[in-house]
Write a structure and sequence with these properties.
223 residues; mainly alpha; 2 domains; two-stranded antiparallel sheet; 8 helices; 3% strand; disordered C terminus
């Protein structure tokens, strides 16, 4: 995105100081400004129109024309004209996602290793159960057709069991991450300084000094 296709929100103070410029600007700049001083004004104005006005206000001819009409050239620099304005208010930008820190990256790597290990264990469990069933059926003198069917049946049961266990494990991981986020939020809320410090937050020696001072003051009052 370049300055040529950027729009700036046309604030009321900006619209007010742009109106007198129509008769002062050069013909091309005045023609470009004309659509944006109407009443009611549009919601945005191109950045390059404001940039041309700012450049003109710094020229000797521009400063002379502005002062001749009791206008301050400083009101037409970019900082003054963009005060309170919003860049591309009509645009819809996505939410900013900050990059992950080293701890978050390492935690993701650990989670990936655990998921890969769980997948390999599941495959070994399925294959081992199917092979063990095949071997046991062979010892029982079953025919090859029944041995294949029994091995597939046992493998399917083990696969379904492993899938259920993985779903339970994944749901617990998500619940744990959610609870950690809630705990961090609660901890941050409790740590906010409200301007008041309770005696429990003071060091033991300071609390003792305060109590002794209060007790001495009470004794003096009684005397």
């Amino acid at each position: 995105m370049t300055a040529n296709n950027l729009n700036i929100s046309l604030e009321s103070h900006l619209h007010k100081i742009l109106i007198p410029l129509v008769s002062l600007l050069p013909a091309s700049a005045s023609e470009n400004l004309q659509p944006y001083i109407s009443d009611p004004p549009p919601s945005t104005i191109p950045y390059n129109v404001l940039q041309a006005i700012s450049q003109w206000s710094r020229t000797p001819a521009g400063q002379k024309a502005l002062r001749a009409n009791s206008l301050d050239p400083q009101d037409y620099n970019m900082i003054a004209m963009l005060a309170g304005a919003t860049t591309s208010p009509e645009g819809k930008f996505g939410d900013y996602t900050p990059p992950k820190g080293p701890q978050a990256i390492e935690a993701d790597r650990v989670k990936e290793r655990k998921a890969i290990t769980a997948l390999l264990n599941a495959l070994l469990s399925i294959g081992g159960a199917a092979f063990a069933t095949w071997w046991a059926a062979d010892k029982l003198r079953w025919t090859n057709e029944w041995r294949v069917l029994l091995s597939l049946f046992v493998g399917m049961i083990v696969a379904i069991s492993e899938g259920v266990l993985y779903v339970i494990w994944d749901s617990r991981q998500k619940a744990s991450k959610k609870s950690q986020g809630i705990r961090r939020l609660q901890s941050a809320t409790h740590k906010k300084d409200d301007g008041e410090t309770s005696p429990a937050d003071l060091p033991d020696d300071l609390t003792t000094k305060v109590d002794l001072t209060d007790e001495s003051a009470n004794l003096r009052r009684r005397r």
